[in-house]
């Protein structure tokens, strides 16, 4: 676990403790998050998961904003309980009041998408070709049907695949 990340998590907790004049239970911290999310706070498990690639690529902003964002979720949960909205007024007040940071819900990091296979489906239209993701292709295999919006015919797998 990178030392800077752990140090920032601890600093956020110390700020919250000084502000609210109470202690907070420290979370387990993991860098095993992949995909598009920069971080996730698991409230019931008291666990913070961060995206290692986005941390490496955006270190300064990530440490300042993303870590505080996720810690604020756990602090809000410990203060106000499980019935608050994830980015509601309690969480926003912690971001603005405790950390003096914008209460941004989403990051704007450049996320590299992995190439994926697309399964080509066709309809009765002359130019009707629809690339399906692997997930949607699997749903068709389980019985789900998709219709063309123009001709209203059922989309049928052509047998062709492309790497996108």
Automatic annotation (TrEMBL):
Domain of life: Bacteria
A Pfam short name: SprT-like
Keywords: Hydrolase, Metalloprotease, Protease
Matches recorded under InterPro entries: SprT-like_domain (IPR006640)
An MF annotation (GO) of this entry: metallopeptidase activity
Annotated ranges, domain SprT-like: 7-158
NCBIfam families in the cross-refs: PRK04860.1 (NF003421)
Name by which UniProt lists this protein: SprT family zinc-dependent metalloprotease
